[in-house]
Sequence to fold (117 residues):
Amino acid sequence: MSSLPPASEPQQLKIDSRAGLEAAVDQVLPLARRQIMVFANTLGSEWNQDARAGTLREFCLASRRNELKLVLHDVQPLYRNCPRLLNLLRQFGHVLAIHETHLEAKHIYDPFIIVDD
Fold:
């Protein structure tokens, strides 16, 4: 997978593997200055890694007006796999929000991450 283009223009990437997804997430998260929105089935242990948790912590500390929104079909794996993310939720509840989709929306699955619109 090639590196991301300059952040000045909106970009879309087609990702066809789990490794590609995680690499893209790690590339795009540090670019965020105001907003991060994630929609996924659930989050894996990659969201508990030191580097990613550190990037999210820096984002949360950068401004009280920042927004980090996660919308997931299944939040239960977070309790097993992502204690660092849950710690960020406790510390930065004014920035970070985690929502679970309603039952009638669970069949929709087209994951995405949006950074700064």
